Fold each of these.
Amino acid sequence: MAKTTELEAAYQATTYRVYLPDGRCDLHPGVASETLRCWLETAGATCFAVLTAYNPASLPLDGSENASRQSQLECELLDSGFETYVGENVADDAAWPVEESCFVPGIAVAEAITLGERYGQNAVLCGGADGVPELVWLATAAAPS
């Protein structure tokens, strides 16, 4: 699906929830998370991403297909030596289903982009040691209309 103002607004209006060992952390694009910053510092991580394989191109798939795709993504991350934590993307629009995701500390933006594109995503959420998550729009998502 081409990136549109409406699509961008939907991604911005989503809570990217991650479950860290010390508890839940809700992330919002462009908003610093002190909880995440402290956790990253303790973990020695200087970057992170929130990744999902659910609903490629923002086109809903059935639950079993989404679960299978997410499992593939997580296996790929684990096989590459990344530690992953459970997450979920919760849209403000209750009509959109909650998407399972994974929080990946230590993954570089370029690697996150590659995986996002491989799994047909419009964007990935990435950030650095400062704990400020930012949406990174992928080549598969067109310029805003």
Amino acid sequence: MEPITLEATKRCPEINFDFAANTFLIKGESYPEDVDSFYGEIIEALETHLESQQGATIRLDLELIYFNSSTAKVLMELFEMMDAAAERGNDVLVAWHYEADDDNMEELGGEFAEELAHARFELKVLET
């Protein structure tokens, strides 16, 4: 599967999904006008890819500065997909990156971590 690479815009994050390397990055701000339009094909491609993985090492990095409630729903869908991939025997790491002084993003990361039963979740302070 070809990589998905999208540059960040004012309302949409950078996307760098490298299916061959099993590394997936979402970085920046995420409050697109139409969440389904922006994330729909990306989520579908990732889901198809993850379903084909067995015994793989998979990494999702999230470096979000801000996101809205619609994006939060997409993130939950991503976490569910990652957790399912881990349950099927893949080594899955979700890394939640946040600024050292951003207590809100740290807290949100902690809340998301509680939703995962099989995938590993790490809170990581961004290096400046």
